[in-house]
Specification:
Layout (H helix, E strand, L loop, with lengths): L6 E4 L1 H9 L2 H10 L4 E5 H12 L6 H11 L1 E3 L3 H15 L7 H13 L2 E4 L10 E3 L3
Parallel strand pairs: 1-2, 1-4, 2-3, 4-5
């Protein structure tokens, strides 16, 4: 595997598949369990918590602690939020249904100068993305 840089932002899609142990999760595992500096946007924690609350993810407290131990958590500050609004506008030129959460996650990766581990339809074809989707 070619060296891709040490920093990787892990999005919601990648964490879900990792925890499910799917084929896509196995692809994510190579990076999550690899020798990389992992970063997780706080908005991803919110999305995963929501899935847990709806019964779509078990053992959330254990998984949340694992994420916090495995990766740095990126807070949504004013600068990131402002840039995310602009990036959402840019993404909308290609994807009419892209949401602000995708824009926030992408913005975090750009600010951190990191690759983005994802399989999300709106993000996987971007230049800094590592696509784990089938």
């Amino acid at each position: 595997m070619a060296r891709i840089g040490n920093k990787i932002v892990v999005d919601t899609y990648a964490w879900i598949e990792y925890f499910r142990g799917t084929i896509e999760g196995e692809r994510a595992k190579k990076f999550i369990d690899g020798d990389f500096q992992l970063l997780t946007p706080s908005i991803v924690i919110a999305e995963l918590s929501d899935k847990s609350t709806r019964g779509e993810m078990s053992d959330w407290d254990i998984k949340r602690r694992f994420i916090s131990l495995k990766s740095g958590i990126l807070p949504l500050d004013e600068t990131t939020a402002d840039k995310a609004g602009k990036i959402k506008h840019w993404l909308r030129k290609k994807y009419k249904d892209v949401g602000i959460i995708d824009a926030i996650i992408l913005t975090h990766s750009l600010i951190a100068e990191a690759r983005l581990l994802t399989g999300d339809t709106h993000l996987k074809s971007l230049e800094n993305a590592i696509d784990i989707s089938s």
